[in-house]
């Protein structure tokens, strides 16, 4: 049986590299590795199982790995550096990782913190005024007396967050999730909670002193919380039915609060 041979280029043959020389170089390295496989001696008798074929496979695999790593690492490093410079992939957010970080009394004013992760972070008495948190994760973070004045907290996940005495003046919390969060004593003048998910007991506590109008959205704080709203949405979060849903007897057949009960206002 005639063994297959590999045509190897002559060392004296001229080589013209196209523009994409890196890919050509990678293919050339594979061809060179294949050329270096020793020929089979037909007079040496049968080769042991997995002999020269295993050696050839190992050589080609090593060459492929070396070629891939040689061209991939610099490109990956450049991409990571670029994303860091433009504050996140495609320049739409930082995606920074602050999970469980100690951020006590730090200053992050007017920063781009979109899609950043603050899960279980210690943010006590920190200043985040004017910063943007769109799509950020702040669940179980502790932000006691933290300053979020004028911050954009829309579309953020803030469940089980501690916001005692936090300053949310003129903050935008549209569509934010605040289930099981504690906002006791928080300053909410001018804050916009439109379509935010809040537990009934927490919303009722905020409605007792909610006031002001958000300068960015033009929405009244009391209206955004649904204070005094007779519709079912005024009863808080649908994700927490035990705390948020009103007793069935308060609803009429259309799903709205029955005015005859005298218990429709959520003040």
TrEMBL record:
InterPro entries: 5peptide_repeat, Thylakoid_lumenal_pentapeptide. Residues 230-253 are annotated as: Disordered. Pfam families: Pentapeptide. SUPFAM superfamilies: Pentapeptide repeat-like. PANTHER family: THYLAKOID LUMENAL PROTEIN TL20.3, CHLOROPLASTIC. This is Thylakoid lumenal protein. It comes from Acorus calamus. The lineage of its organism: Eukaryota, Viridiplantae, Streptophyta, Embryophyta, Tracheophyta.
């Amino acid at each position: 049986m005639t063994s297959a041979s590999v045509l190897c280029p002559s060392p004296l043959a001229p080589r013209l590299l196209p523009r994409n020389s890196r890919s050509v170089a990678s293919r050339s390295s594979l061809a060179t590795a294949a050329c270096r496989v020793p020929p089979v001696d037909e007079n040496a008798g049968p080769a042991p199982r997995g002999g020269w074929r295993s050696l050839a496979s190992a050589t080609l695999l090593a060459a492929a790995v070396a070629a891939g790593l040689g061209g991939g690492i610099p490109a990956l490093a450049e991409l990571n550096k670029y994303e860091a410079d433009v504050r996140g992939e495609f320049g739409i957010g930082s995606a920074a990782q602050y999970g469980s970080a100690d951020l006590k009394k730090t200053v992050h004013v007017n920063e781009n913190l979109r899609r950043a992760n603050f899960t279980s972070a210690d943010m006590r008495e920190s200043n985040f005024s004017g910063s943007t948190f769109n799509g950020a994760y702040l669940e179980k973070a502790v932000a006691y007396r933290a300053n979020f004045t004028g911050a954009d907290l829309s579309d953020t996940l803030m469940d089980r967050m501690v916001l005692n005495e936090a300053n949310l003046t003129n903050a935008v919390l549209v569509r934010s999730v605040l289930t099981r969060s504690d906002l006791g004593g928080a300053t909410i003048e001018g804050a916009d909670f439109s379509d935010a998910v809040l537990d009934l007991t927490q919303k009722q506590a905020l409605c007792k002193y909610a006031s002001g109008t958000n300068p960015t959205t033009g929405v009244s704080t009391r209206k955004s919380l649904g204070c005094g709203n007779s519709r079912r949405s005024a009863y808080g979060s649908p994700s927490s039915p035990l705390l948020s849903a009103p007793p069935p007897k308060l609803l009429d057949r259309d799903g709205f609060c029955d005015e005859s009960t005298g218990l429709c206002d959520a003040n």
